[in-house]
Amino acid sequence: MPAASTLAIYQLKVVLLGISPMIWRRIRVRSDSTIADLHYTIQIAMGWADEHLHQFIIHGVRYGISYMGSAGFGDNAQEVKLAQFSFREREKFIYEYDFCDYWKHQIRVEAIFPDDNPSTYPICTTGKGACPPENCGGTAGFITLRQKYNRVDIALRLAEIFLMGEIEEIAQHKAELAQLHYWLKIHEIDRPKINHQLQQYATGDEAWRDSLSQIRL
């Protein structure tokens, strides 16, 4: 494992707890990334829309980005770098998002590499499962919705829409079609899109915010 003072790459596995089949991502980030960087990386990689409060719990201490009207944190998330935690392989910590729906993620340090690769970080190397819709009622609400949108019912509804014939009529169902497409692809992720957004973030291109896509219920 590289010494704490040298720049390193952390391979992290982010797992959304309480859901089966698992929804997870494997990401790689630089050790000089900040807590704020990791927050935005997880939001992009998982597919959240960054609409709610969040916090990390690392070594028993809360970290996160403070917002006006929220309780706030003792440290500035823009200044706390991951290298300061001296992570070890197989170490775990927690990321919580949306304190109403309460999405809890377990983050595991799978590997630590020397930073000798010219790749732009962060990157998402693999993963499984589409992120739940925002404001869907947490794990219980998401599981209920997933059972409701089975492939047979989706196919029947798509047939109904496209049999309308007229383009104008079909266009009126744009939002519903997006929802049906989401549930059809529920076990997949769009890794090229994720990495494009991560590269935008890494290079300071704010367009990544505009391309955060979430299904609205």
Task: Give structural notes.
By secondary structure, the chain is α+β, with helices and mostly antiparallel strands. Helices cover 31% and strands 23% of the residues. The chain has seven helices and seven strands. The protein has a seven-stranded antiparallel beta sheet with strand order 4-3-5-6-1-2-7, covered by helices on one side. β5 (92-97) and β6 (103-114) form a beta hairpin. α1 (35-46) runs antiparallel to α6. The model has no long low-confidence stretch (mean pLDDT 89).
Give a short summary of the structure.
The protein contains seven helices and seven strands. By secondary structure, it is α+β, with helices and mostly antiparallel strands.
Kindly report how far apart the N and C termini lie: 45 Å
Q: Indicate the structural class.
A: alpha+beta
Spatial order of the strands forming the largest sheet = 4-3-5-6-1-2-7
Please bin the fraction of helical residues: 25-40%
Stretches where pLDDT is under 50 for at least 5 consecutive residues are none
**Percent in strands:** 15-25%
Shape descriptor reads elongated
Q: How would a textbook summarize the main sheet? A: 7 strands, antiparallel
The ordered H/E elements are EEHEEEEEHHHHHH
- What's the pLDDT, averaged over the residues? 89
Q: How many distinct beta strands?
A: 7
Oligomer type: single chain
| C-alpha-based Rg, rounded | 19 Å
Determine the number of helices (DSSP H or I, runs of at least 4 residues): 7
